[in-house]
Amino acid sequence: MGEITICKTSNALEYLPQIDRNEADSDFMHAVSENDEDIYSILHQEATVGLALLEGDSYAFLYIYIFPIYRRRGFGKAAALLLEQKLCTYNPVEISTCYRIDDSVAHAFAKGFGYIKEFSSDYMTYSGPGFELETVPVRPYQDQDYLEAHSLSAEAFHLMRLSTGCFPDSVPESPSEEARKYWADTAEQRLVYMSGEEIAGCAHVQGSEISSISVKPDCQGKGMGKAFLKYIVNMLINTGCTSISLYCVVGNDRARHLYDELGFIRVYRNEYAKKKIRVEA
Predict the structure, then answer these.
(1) CA-to-CA distance for 202 and 194, rounded, in angstroms?
(2) Strand 4-8 versus strand 39-44 pairing type
(3) Which stretches within 118-176 are classed as H helix?
(4) 231: Cβ–Cβ under 8 A, 6 or more apart, which residues?
(5) pLDDT tens digits for 67-86?
(6) Rounded distance between C-alpha atoms, residue 160 and residue 142, angstroms
(7) Which residues contact 195 (CB under 8 A, 6 or more apart)?
(8) For the whole model, what pTM was predicted?
(9) What angle is formed at CA 274 by the lines to CA 166 and CA 32, rounded to 5 degrees?
(10) Which of 172, 174, 214, 206 is nearest to 190 (CA)?
(11) Distance of CA 106 to CAs 51, 80, 101, 103, 260, Å?
């Protein structure tokens, strides 16, 4: 087979024609389209045989895509070994990956490398018209919102995780200076929903994808989530988006009911799997 090497990709966009959009994950496609700095080229001799999305941190993420014409030659396995070695330089607690639930080859590949399924998530899109909506108390996120917004988001997602039955060991994420900096760096992508003087909800919108949306647990069941989601959809349509996307964890029945009611359609289902690298201190 010859030696496999990896390197940062200088122009991921040039490889888009070699990626089958009907099988590649949407987040990976978005990263390639944006020339994300976390995209790496997988090289065999002088040919680029695939790409990888590599996010190094305490909780690392790895996604490998070998172009169809180069498959069944062992390039994926060789690349996985190299990429995991690179991720281990970050001393991660665990490495996660994802694959479509109907892709038995990808499932077997991940299982062979020791990844164990944790949960599933549906990728959903909306391509309909805007919604009729009265004025909604939504404003841009500001740094001074961090503690309040992070607290409600952490609690809402913790309760969601417990409700699915897939995360029995879930605990609310604690605030940190690292997280605050990330929220500040992405402030232009964030919105907060106000209820009087209190923050009742928050959302993170990246391009045409609603990365997260949450409402304070004691404010749920009052129509705030529906109004917030409609507001975001209308905002994106007004900026020219023709297809709006989000992921919904399987088992998050409250959210799924809302997405179905508003006309979001499931495109595919992903499985997310992980393997432990070290025990947390």
Answers:
(1) 9
(2) antiparallel
(3) 146-164
(4) 133, 136, 138
(5) 999 999 999 999 999 999 99
(6) 25
(7) 137, 219, 224
(8) 0.91
(9) 110
(10) 206
(11) 15, 12, 9, 5, 28
What is the rounded distance in angstroms from the CA atom of residue 122 to the CA atom of residue 101? Answer: 10
Q: At residue 220, what is the residue type?
A: Q
Which tokens is 163 given?
């409700």
The kind and range of the H/E element at 6 are strand 4-8
CA separation for the pair 226, 153 (Å, rounded)? 16
CA-CA distance, 39 to 29, in Å (whole number)? 10
- Residue whose structure tokens are 């919105």: 191
Amino acid at 232: I
Q: Which two tokens stand for residue 25?
A: 């994950």
Please give the Cα distance from 259 to 144 (Å, whole number). 30
CA 268 vs CA 30, 118, 245: distances in Å: 16, 17, 12
Structure tokens at 251: 């088992």
Tens of pLDDT, residues 185-212: 999 999 999 999 999 999 999 999 999 9
Name the residue type at position 24.
A
Pick from 223, 202, 231: nearest CA to 214: 202
